[in-house]
TrEMBL record, chain A:
GO terms for molecular function: transmembrane transporter activity. It comes from Actinophytocola algeriensis. The chain crosses the membrane at residues 6-27, 57-79, 91-116, 142-159, 188-209, 221-249, 261-284. It is a multi-pass membrane protein. One of its GO terms (biological process) is amino acid transport. Belongs to the binding-protein-dependent transport system permease family. LivHM subfamily. This is Branched-chain amino acid transport system permease protein.
Length: 298, 375
C-alpha cells in the first residue's frame, strides 16, 4: 500500500509538471490556433536562465524563479512578434513547422551558451523529505504540486475576471468579432506567448531542481507533455490539467511496477506509456477528453 | 510549296507551350525541351561516377539519393495529401531492419529484399493510416510523433531483429543474379562499391520519381490534392477521402521503407539512434525547402539538405567556432550546428519562400518562357 501511495505521489508531482507545460500549449493554441513545438526550448531556456540567476548571480531562489519567468516571457513575446506574426493566416502545417524549426534553433543555442554538462541548480528544496503517516514525500515534489495548483487557480481567475483574460477568450472564440469590439489581437497573441513561456520556465525550474538536475535534454519533457495536452483536449485548460495528472500517474505507476508487472514490455516502457494511452483515448474521443469538436463547413 | 505553311500561319498555329486539350495537360513531358532536359540529367547520372571517383563526394551523392527516395514518399503524403506525419523515420527504420533480415540473414538478392521491405512498410503504413480517418491536423501530427517514440522503444527492445541499443549489421548485398553492384565488373573495367551504389540508388530515384509522377498527374493525384485542400468537399465531389488517405500512408511508407533498406544496405550497420525525431524533421525540412507538392522539389531538397550534414562534417575544421570533436575548441558542435541549420532552413523558407526551391525554379522558368515580356 505504501509503495502504491508513493507511486501515486510521484505521479502527481510528475503530472503537475506536465500540466504546467500543457497549460502553456493550451494558452497559445486557444488564442492563436498554433501548437507550439518550441515550448520545450522555452522550458529549457527558462531553466537555464534560472540557473544563471540563482547560481552565477547568486540571487535568492524565489526571486530567480520570478526573474527567469519574466525573462522567458519576454523571449516568448519576441518570438511571436518576430516570427509567428508573419504566419498569421497561413495553413496550420506551415505554422507547426515554424515552431519545430524554432525548437531546433533554440536547443543548439542553449548548448552553445551553457554547454552539454549536467549543471546543479542551487535550490532550497534539494533532496529534503518530510514524513507524513509513514509516507516519505519529497519537498520538491510537494512544492511542484503546490505551485501548479496555485498557477491553475490564478489561471482560471485571470481568464474569468480580468479584461485581458476576457479579451483572450473573445479572440479565441472569434478573432474577427473580437477585433470589431476593439480588442487588439496583436496584444492578445503576444500576451499568450508570454504567459506560455513563463509557464514553461516555471515547469523547467521545478524540474531542474529535481534529482535529474539541469541538462539540455530537459526540453524532452515538453514532447512528453504533448500526450497530456492532446488527451485533455487541445483547447481546454481544465483538460490540460486533467490530462497532465492522468499521464503523470500512468507513467509513474508503470515505472513503479516495472519489475513486477511490465518486465515483458522491455526496459523503460514507462516512457512510451503516455503515447500509448493518448492513442487509445484519441481513438475513442478524437478531440480529447474535454476538447471541443470543431464544426467543419464546406 | 509554301501553301501548307502559309495556311498554318494564317490560321495561327498554336505555340508549343499552349495547352488546349485534357490529354495535353496530362502529358508527362510538357514540352519537347523537358524531354531533352531529362535526357541530359540521365546522361549526367550515368557518366558522373566515372568522372567523380572520390569516395567522399560519391557517398554524399548516394546519401542524397537515398534521402530523395524517402522525401518523394513523404511529399506524396504531406505535400499532396496534406497529412502531417512526424513519423517518417519510423517507417525508414522498419525498412532497414526488414532488409537486414531478408537480405542479410536469409541472404536473398537485391530485388527481393527491396520489395520485401517495401511490403513491410506498406503493411505498417496501412496500420497507421486509419488513424488519419479519425484525427486531423494537429492531433494527427502528435500521434505520428508518438510513433517515433514507440518505434524507438521497439527498436531498442526487439533485440532478436534489431540488435538492441548497439544496432545490427545489415548484410543485404546489392546483387541481382550474377551481377554484384558492390563490386561491378563491366567490359574488363572494375568499378568501386561507391560507383555501383551510385548507379543503383539514382536509378531507383528515377524509377520512383517516374512512378510518383504518374501517380500524381492522373486521377489519384487529383484526388489526393482534393483531400488536401478540403477533405469533406472532396467527399462531396465523389472522392473517397478515407481510401485515399490510407492509400497515401501505404504508398508513402512503402517508399520510406525502401529508402531505409537502401540506407541500411549501403551503411551496412544501423542502430536505433539512426531513426530519431531529428531524421523525421530532416525529411520535413527537405520537402519544405524543396517545395511541397512537387516530385522534382523532393529530389532538389534532398540534394540540398541531405548533403549538408556530410559537408558540414567534412569542412567543420574550416568553419570558425565549430568543435570538431567532443571537448574540442569552439562553442557549437557539428551535430548542434546541423540541427540549428535544419531549423533555420525550415523557418526561413516557410516565411520567405513557401513554395521552396521548386517554386524558385518555376519562377525562373516562367520568366524565360515569356521572355522578353516579364510579368
Amino acid at each position: 500500500m505504501t509503495t502504491f501511495l508513493t507511486n501515486v505521489f510521484a505521479g502527481l508531482a510528475l503530472g503537475s509538471t506536465y500540466a504546467l507545460v500543457a497549460l502553456g500549449f493550451v494558452v497559445i493554441y486557444k488564442s492563436t490556433g498554433v501548437i507550439n513545438f518550441a515550448q520545450g526550448g522555452l522550458l529549457a531556456l527558462g531553466a537555464y536562465l534560472g540557473y544563471t540567476f540563482a547560481d552565477n548571480l547568486a540571487i535568492a531562489f524565489a526571486v530567480s524563479i520570478l526573474l527567469a519567468c519574466a525573462a522567458a516571457a519576454i523571449v516568448g513575446a519576441s518570438v511571436e512578434r518576430l516570427v509567428l506574426r508573419r504566419m498569421v493566416g497561413q495553413p496550420p502545417f506551415a505554422v507547426i513547422m515554424i515552431t519545430i524549426g524554432l525548437l531546433f534553433v533554440i536547443e543548439p543555442l542553449i548548448t552553445a551558451i551553457w554547454g552539454f554538462d549536467n549543471l546543479p541548480l542551487a535550490n532550497p528544496w534539494n533532496i529534503q523529505t518530510v514524513e507524513v503517516g509513514g509516507l516519505v514525500l519529497g519537498v520538491r515534489d510537494l512544492w511542484t504540486i503546490g505551485i501548479t495548483a496555485a498557477v491553475v487557480v490564478a489561471f482560471f481567475l485571470f481568464f474569468r475576471y480580468t479584461r485581458m483574460g476576457l479579451a483572450m477568450r473573445a479572440t479565441a472564440f472569434d478573432p474577427e468579432a473580437a477585433l470589431a469590439q476593439g480588442i487588439s489581437a496583436r496584444r492578445v497573441y503576444a500576451t499568450s506567448w508570454a504567459i506560455a513561456a513563463a509557464l514553461a520556465a516555471l515547469a523547467g525550474i521545478t524540474l531542474a531542481a529535481g534529482p535529474g538536475g539541469l541538462s539540455p535534454s530537459i526540453s524532452f519533457i515538453a514532447l512528453a507533455a504533448f500526450p497530456a495536452m492532446i488527451l485533455g483536449g487541445l483547447d481546454s485548460p481544465a483538460g490540460a490539467v486533467l490530462g497532465g495528472v492522468i499521464i503523470g500517474l500512468a507513467e509513474a505507476l508503470t515505472r513503479g511496477y516495472q519489475d513486477q508487472l511490465f518486465s515483458w514490455a522491455g526496459a523503460n516502457v514507462s516512457l512510451i506509456v503516455p503515447y500509448l494511452l493518448m492513442i487509445v483515448i484519441l481513438l475513442i474521443r478524437p478531440y480529447g477528453l474535454l476538447g471541443t469538436k470543431d464544426v467543419r463547413r464546406i | 510549296m509554301s501553301g501548307a505553311r502559309g495556311t498554318n500561319r494564317a490560321q495561327g498555329k498554336p505555340h508549343r507551350n499552349l495547352v488546349r486539350s485534357y490529354e495535353q495537360d496530362l502529358r508527362l513531358f510538357g514540352s519537347p525541351m523537358s524531354k531533352v532536359g531529362l535526357g541530359l540529367m540521365l546522361a549526367t547520372l550515368l557518366v558522373l561516377p566515372t568522372v567523380v571517383r572520390d569516395d567522399f563526394w560519391l557517398s554524399v551523392l548516394i546519401y542524397s539519393g537515398i534521402t530523395a527516395i524517402g522525401a518523394i514518399g513523404l511529399n506524396l503524403l504531406t505535400g499532396y495529401c496534406g497529412q502531417i506525419s512526424l513519423g517518417h523515420a519510423f517507417f525508414i527504420g522498419a525498412g532497414a531492419y526488414a532488409a537486414a533480415v531478408v537480405g542479410g540473414d536469409l541472404g536473398l538478392p537485391l530485388p527481393v529484399w527491396l520489395l520485401a521491405s517495401a511490403a513491410i512498410g506498406a503493411v505498417l503504413g496501412g496500420l497507421i493510416g486509419p488513424f488519419a480517418l479519425r484525427l486531423r491536423g494537429h492531433y494527427l501530427a502528435i500521434v505520428t510523433l508518438g510513433l517515433i517514440f514507440i518505434g524507438e522503444h521497439l527498436w531498442r527492445n526487439l533485440r532478436d531483429v534489431t540488435g538492441g541499443n548497439n544496432g545490427t549489421s545489415v548484410g543485404a548485398e546489392a546483387t541481382v543474379g550474377p551481377v554484384d553492384l558492390g563490386a561491378l565488373e563491366l567490359a574488363g573495367e572494375n568499378y568501386s562499391r561507391n560507383q555501383g551504389y551510385f548507379w543503383l540508388v539514382w536509378a531507383l530515384v528515377a524509377i520512383i520519381a517516374l512512378l510518383a509522377k504518374n501517380l500524381v498527374r492522373t486521377r489519384p493525384g487529383r484526388a489526393l490534392r482534393a483531400v488536401r485542400d478540403h477533405d469533406q468537399a472532396a467527399e462531396v465531389i465523389g472522392v473517397r477521402a478515407g481510401r485515399y488517405k490510407i492509400g497515401a500512408f501505404v504508398v508513402s511508407s512503402a517508399i520510406a521503407a525502401m529508402a531505409g533498406a537502401l540506407f541500411g544496405s549501403y551503411q551496412q550497420h544501423v542502430s536505433p539512434d539512426d531513426w530519431t525525431l531529428l531524421l523525421s524533421i530532416q525529411y520535413i525540412a527537405i520537402i519544405i525547402v524543396g517545395g511541397l507538392g512537387t516530385i522534382f522539389g523532393a529530389i532538389l531538397g534532398a540534394i540540398f539538405v541531405g548533403a549538408l550534414p556530410a559537408l558540414i562534417d567534412e569542412y567543420s575544421s574550416a568553419i570558425p567556432g565549430v568543435a570538431t570533436e567532443a571537448g574540442g575548441d569552439g562553442f557549437i558542435s557539428v551535430f548542434a550546428l546541423n540541427q540549428a541549420i535544419f531549423g533555420l532552413l525550415i523557418v526561413l523558407f516557410l516565411v520567405f519562400e513557401p513554395r521552396g526551391l521548386a517554386g524558385i525554379w518555376f519562377r525562373v522558368k516562367a520568366y524565360f518562357k515569356a521572355w522578353p515580356f516579364s510579368y
